[in-house]
Amino acid sequence: MEGDTLSKLHADYVHPYIGKLEREFSDIEKDLEREDLPTKRRNELLKLSKTLRGKIREVKEFESELVKMASARLTFDLDNGVATNYPKFYPLVEPIKGLDAKED
């Protein structure tokens, strides 16, 4: 893990994925404009459109956090262990239950 790893994640994976989702969403919206579209297919596309809209919103929220954290150029030291390194990446990663618990 280097200081530019989060930037690479954004540029190589997250940003292209958002583009892919938005293209798919656009294609569905174009299909929905067709007047000859059967009702069953229209309903399927409406459901898919709603699902994609939610995915796009979720990934864009993740992207926003990723960009903020990428500018901090976070790194970690393997010698510090998971309990020290993992929380540096909140909210990009889900908290691990019990990780923050104090050892007796």
What's the overall average pLDDT, rounded? 88
Helix content: 55-70%
Q: Count of DSSP E strands?
A: 0
Q: What order do the SSEs take from the amino end to the carboxyl end, as H and E?
A: HHH
Structural classification: mainly alpha
Separation of the first and last Cα atoms: 31 Å
What value does the Rg take, in angstroms?
Answer: 20 Å
Strand content: under 5%
Shape: elongated
* Total helical elements: 3
For the largest beta-sheet, the strand count, sense and barrel status come to: none
Low confidence ranges: none
Q: Any key phrases for this structure?
A:
mainly alpha; 0% strand; elongated
Question: What does this protein structure show overall?
Answer:
- This protein is mainly alpha-helical.
- 62% of the residues lie in helices and 0% in strands.
- The mean pLDDT is 88.
